[in-house]
Design brief:
mainly alpha; de novo design (two linked rop proteins)
Length: 187
């Protein structure tokens, strides 16, 4: 009779472990999904601000069509991006294009004093800050989820229920170089 109670206790302990681990994995997965949703909301907000910003600068710098085309193309890539890797690449391209746009704007003192441009620039800076915060939250969630999926003994439960690790949302080497080195604008 004691053996039966021991077996029942072991089964209950294993079932509780599987239940708790599964729920923990689901919680982490949902946090990562929520964080990704936050990133896409901010990227959409930025994509909606960009045409207004480009139009503000266009009036002052009509001969800078290459910069405008690069920003427009980068925005289109961002809006059409699917998944973390593609979105990260589009984000990197757009950040570089916006940096060039702001470098062009620096050359026009009247534009820098334009209230509409300043408001749009402020909104874009605020959105960029929110994107960075969302990226940090997302990457933290991915780190926690991937750690739990890869750690023993929770990796056994993760494998049983087909939980998969996620990719980090990172800057590529070109984007990191763009962040560290200022854009050189020559007229």
């Amino acid at each position: 009779m004691t053996v039966v109670w021991i077996i029942v206790a072991i089964v209950v302990i294993v079932a509780l472990f599987v239940w708790a681990t599964f729920n923990g994995l689901v919680t982490l997965k949902n946090r990562v999904d929520e964080a990704w949703s936050d990133i896409t909301v901010q990227l959409k907000r930025r994509a909606d601000l960009i045409p207004n910003l480009v139009n503000s600068v266009k009036g002052y710098a009509a001969h800078e069509s290459g910069v405008f085309e690069a920003v427009t193309a980068a925005r289109a890539n961002m809006v059409g991006a699917k998944g973390v890797k593609e979105t990260a690449a589009a984000e990197n391209q757009l950040s570089g294009a916006l940096k060039s746009l702001f470098a062009v704007a620096e050359a026009y003192p009247d534009l820098k004093a334009n209230q509409n441009f300043l408001q749009l620039q402020g909104e874009l800076v605020d959105t960029e800050d929110k994107i960075q915060a969302s990226r940090r939250f997302y990457n933290g969630g991915v780190r926690d989820l991937n750690t739990k999926i890869q750690s023993f003994p929770s990796n056994v439960v993760a494998g049983m229920f087909h939980f998969e690790g996620r990719e980090f949302f990172e800057l590529d080497d070109a984007a990191q170089a763009a962040v560290q080195n200022p854009v050189d604008v020559k007229f």
